[in-house]
Amino acid sequence: MSVNKSEGQVMDKLVTGEDIRKAAKTVEEAAIRSPLLKDEVLSARYDCNVYLKREDLQPVRSFKIRGAYNHIKNLSDDAREKGVVCASAGNHAQGVALSCQKLGIRGKVFMPTTTPKQKISQVSFFGDKWVDIVITGDSFDDAYKEAHKACEEEGMTFVHPFDDKRTIAGQGTVGKEIIEDMDEPISHVFMSVGGGGLSAGVGTYVKENSPGTKIIGVEPEGAPSMKTSLDSGKVETLDWIDKFVDGASVARVGELTFQIARQVMEDVVCVPEGKVCTTILNLYNENAIIAEPAGALPVTALDFYREEIKGKTIVCVISGGNNDISRMQEMKERSLIYEGLKHYFIVNFPQRTGSLKEFVFNVLGDTEDITRFEYTKKNNREKGPVLVGIELKQYEDYHGLIRRMEENGFTYTELNKNQELFNLLV
User: Fold this and answer.
1) For 69-104, what is each residue's pLDDT tens digit?
2) HEC states along the chain?
3) pTM of the predicted model, to two decimals?
């Protein structure tokens, strides 16, 4: 099939504002009308009015319940009798699970092995006796393939997490609520992009009712599937993705969501995973908001739009709050490394008595801490190099640390600047 023919077929199926208004009557059976709250901390930081659409407060702690429920509720009686299948890294799976439980429909959920345990346990809880969980593959795309096999073998209906008109219309009800709950013009709406269902639905409704509002999609730097596709003019499949932002790490966006994005989206911003971690920590410490990586993407993007949004009213959709507490140490580590506050070195200590003491007293500053110290050669501690992790109080201290190491005769390899060695040793 040629690209033009494919695009023509997809264009006939684009979601409308009326589809979203109809979906809203269905969605209210399973989802709450999430609050749209002005955030004073972020508003002061960016010198504008920042409103947060709190989809992390949904029963399944993400917006995905909207699209899943609208999709399943609108299936034929025959399809509902045979049951449904989905593939998901967690949030869509929870939405499908709760929908199956509420509607009394049998479901099978395929989840990649990278899915946080917290999300798997939640799917089990919401699905209760109605849903079976299958853990398979390393990514959403692997789980997606296995889910389709089950559909073919068992005659069940696949509930797409993003590339289906019913799913997109359900997600679009987020946009309907934003428009209805805001009393002033909205300059920008920022939201995360995985497969594109949320941005397609919200973008459709917002543009229909507030054409001047800019729709800004936000992707993790390690999985820029929508930006890559928009830049090339057609849907592209990424050869590799960083799976850290599990709720938005998709190698290929949807055909339908891509076509809608071309019409409604002004820009796609790609943000570093380490910067996302800083945002997660800030949202928790300053705002008491527990956001998952995908949910923190929109707020992370505000730094890239600082000048453009100054003095304006903007909305960030906090799309989910399913953050596994066991990941917080990793997130803190990633944040510190990104901010230049944590550095790892392979240090060659001079072969003289007291060199370790010399390193501590002559190299480390008053506010610098050794967070890791490990001999790389267990059988030759006297002469072998040492893996050293050092945490700084502020980024500016880095140059002084390097200078003191060199002045005192400590040769080193900086692992932060050598990703291959970093991944091997840290």
Assistant:
1) 999 999 999 999 999 999 887 899 999 999 999 999
2) CCHHHHHHHHHCCCCCHHHHHHHHHHHCCCCCCCCEEECHHHHHHHCCEEEEEEHHHCCCCECHHHHHHHHHHCCCHHHHHHCEEEECCCHHHHHHHHHHHHHCCCEEEEECCCCCHHHHHHHHHHHHHHEEEEECCCCHHHHHHHHHHHHHHHCCEECCCCCCHHHHHHHHHHHHHHHHHCCCCCCEEEEECCCCHHHHHHHHHHHHHCCCCEEEEEEECCCCHHHHHHHHCCCCCCCCCCCCCHHHCCCCCCHHHHHHHHHHCCEEEEECHHHHHHHHHHHHHHHCCCCCHHHHHHHHHHHHHHHHHCCCEEEEEECECCCCHHHHHHHHHHHHHHCCCEEEEEEECCCCCCHHHHHHHHHCCCCCEEEEEEECCCCCCCCCCEEEEEECCCCCHHHHHHHHHHHCCCEEEEHHHCHHHHHHHC
3) 0.89
